[in-house]
């Protein structure tokens, strides 16, 4: 019951709305700037990760077909394919984050007249908030996962585009940390202690590792 | 003469092309990922800065009209206006960076038959490369300039949106450093030693300061 209700609210609110990825860059930023809380930092984290994937893909594409890099040809083709898939998924995550936020808002609007309703509403809020923590956690992991490809293209890719690899590394780092802020703010409202403990551990590990990896990649950028 | 020639090439190449800011987010990233070097890291730096401006503006807009923050009302309205102007300028810089890169490419295509042509081509390349260094330097300065507003909204703005301020700080930091990579790679091809020295000094100063300011702002984010 609860889930159906949520789904109704949800469809009503976002059913007619354009996918964020289909909006123009200008309109998307206009919508970000407005006093509507979505898209917010979580969606921007996904966008930042998608941008990192795109830039890395570009460096791979600028390496493919170049005589000087013929030995890297197959590796570059393979990584470009993986990056394309990651980019497409991350673009969908721009909406997914906004949707998960909307679902929390809708759960708060559930009726709270009877005791049963109050309980159902509490549960719905908890479930929606867990989802609102897990969506950016997934984005953080995906952005983190880009670092291996970024390091590879910085070292083996077309050196004329090496700064684009550096930019990709920084965009991915910012995507990871931005997504993790959105995990943490949701954890504060979750009562399931085991869930909070498990997710907190993952957050801390990703936060620590990503800063080290970013520095490591940037140290390999030769200008 | 040289400049007119460049302008012709330029109009031919980009005249019929849609403004990058008018493309959908998905198409913009598709174009980034392609084996066309533009848009590249320089345009992404401008986009990242525009995103930071938009998120900061959102926090200001989520503060305006709230009883709890009535004392900040005027300050928030003022900063929102400044941020809107910065965002619009930075969206235009996405194209400006791509254009400056194209102009370098066009200068390389100038005729080099006679000695006069060879000299003119060399000068054109040097001038275009200087511009390709100065455009991202301007973006870096604009992104750096956002940090004051970001710190203000993190401290005084709606605390429910404080993580959006944190994301804005990291997006602006990444914008500054990304733009500076694009300055540095161009400096390597510029023969005017005085120009290189002056710009290098500015780069180093911005690089050092931005990391400190980012950490300072993030330390003020209370979760």
From TrEMBL, chains A, B:
Organism: Anaerovirgula multivorans
SUPFAM superfamilies xref list: Methenyltetrahydrofolate cyclohydrolase-like (SSF101262)
Entry protein name: Formimidoyltetrahydrofolate cyclodeaminase
Domain Cyclodeaminase/cyclohydrolase: 24-204
Record-linked Pfam families: FTCD_C
Superkingdom in the source lineage: Bacteria
Signal peptide: none
InterPro entries to which the protein is assigned, alphabetical: Cyclodeamin/CycHdrlase, Formintransfe-cycloase-like_sf
GO terms, molecular function: catalytic activity
